[in-house]
Amino acid sequence: MFYEQIRDAYSLYKRDVCSSFEHFHKAIELIYNLGPDREVYVDLKPVVLKHNCVLALMPYQIHYLPYDKNNDGYCTVLPSEYSDEFIELTKDKSVRNSIISNENYCSLFLTEMRELVEKHENSNDNRFIVNAHVNMLLGRLLQCLEFVTDLKKSQSIDFIQAVVKYVDQHYAEPLSIESVAQYFGYSKYYFSRLFNKCFYTSFTNYFNTVRIYKSIPLIQKYHSSEIFFRVGFASVQQYITYFKRTTGYTPSQYRHNTNFIDRN
């Protein structure tokens, strides 16, 4: 599980199998399922996304969309700057159910998401029209999702943002949970409990997963014996072990499996 920084750098409007590794980002993501019912994972819990239903993923919500060639749908990742206002509006609330199944609402989401794909493919369309569709989607989310009071949510988001930023800046360094906890002013044990609660994994696992995904853009240019120290691993064997544990492939297999790289 890792923070997918690229999702917060660009908006995304596409139609495809809608698959991804376990990850999270600040940007709001919507999946409209045009294919058969499928199992997805939200905050590590399995959820069934039925045909013609919408999965609404809120800022920093962990999700995993298993690959299946029979899947089909629209994937919309809204510009991350829109998440700032949305977070402020919902800072003390959580979504009760990430699945939108109301037929009328789903039809409205489908229209807007399809329009965004078409507008994205036609570079002549102006940004005001695109922004109008994005705002319609955000309005629909506020209209049809059920929010429940969660007073600890804003504190969790602040903690997540701070840790994500720190790890992203220092992933190639020999960080330990003790040193990171000290940086944030916590004891090792309190930091560990808080991290596990917010990230649903241990700090060590998250830290090494970030390193692995930082290494992926390098594998087409460098050998593993050079990559491992660039991203902070102690040895090439440790790097290869974590890489396979994280992706299911060795770096060499991943390098040559272009179809796998393209769909992720």
Folded structure, characterized:
The protein has helices at residues 5-9, 81-89, 103-121, 127-144, 153-170, 177-183, 188-199, 203-215, 224-230, 236-247, 251-256, 258-263; strands at 2-3, 12-16, 20-24, 29-33, 38-42, 45-49, 54-57, 63-65, 73-77, 93-95, 99-100, 147-149. It is α+β, with helices and mostly antiparallel strands. The chain has 2 domains: 2-149, Jelly Rolls (Sandwich); 153-263, Arc Repressor Mutant, subunit A. The strands form 3 sheets. The protein has a 5-stranded mixed beta sheet. Strand 5 and strand 6 form a beta hairpin. The longest helix has 19 residues, at 103-121. The chain is globular. Residues 259-264 have low confidence and may be disordered.
List the helices and strands and how they pair.
Elements: E1 2-3, H1 5-9, E2 12-16, E3 20-24, E4 29-33, E5 38-42, E6 45-49, E7 54-57, E8 63-65, E9 73-77, H2 81-89, E10 93-95, E11 99-100, H3 103-121, H4 127-144, E12 147-149, H5 153-170, H6 177-183, H7 188-199, H8 203-215, H9 224-230, H10 236-247, H11 251-256, H12 258-263
Parallel strand pairs: 1-3
Antiparallel strand pairs: 2-9, 3-8, 4-7, 4-9, 5-6, 5-8, 7-11, 10-12
Helix pairs in contact: 3-4, 6-7, 9-10
